[in-house]
Design brief:
Elements lengths: L1 E11 L5 E6 L2 E5 L4 E6 L18 E12 L4 E10 L5 E11 L1
Antiparallel strand pairs: 1-2, 1-7, 2-3, 3-5, 4-5, 5-6, 6-7
């Protein structure tokens, strides 16, 4: 597993599920069912120090893990996350943060 923080272009379907990826000038097509990576909602961070018992802080999709293959058959499992913005919100820019070979 490689830890990274490299920009990538991610194409999704109408529901936001990844379909294809361009990373390091190479095109990959998603070849397995993507898994949503979740984290605390950005708008919740200013209130994080407050007790939310008996519940938990609200969650949002912060990224995706999926297997994708290049035209030459090279296959990896990728973790992508959206770039954080000031104030805890997330931009539309994606970064590859982990690659599993």
């Amino acid at each position: 597993m490689s830890q990274l923080c490299e920009p990538a272009e991610l194409w999704t379907d109408g529901d936001g599920t990844p379909l294809r990826l361009v990373w390091r000038a190479r095109r990959f097509r998603v070849s397995d069912t993507p898994t949503a990576l979740v984290g605390d909602c950005g708008w919740w961070r200013p209130f994080a120090e407050h007790d939310v018992s008996p519940g938990r802080p609200p969650l949002e999709i912060s990224g995706w893990r999926f297997q994708a293959s290049g035209d030459d058959g090279e296959t990896h499992v990728f973790d992508l996350e959206r770039e954080p913005m000031p104030g805890g919100a997330r931009s539309g820019r994606w970064h590859v943060v982990r690659v599993f070979d």
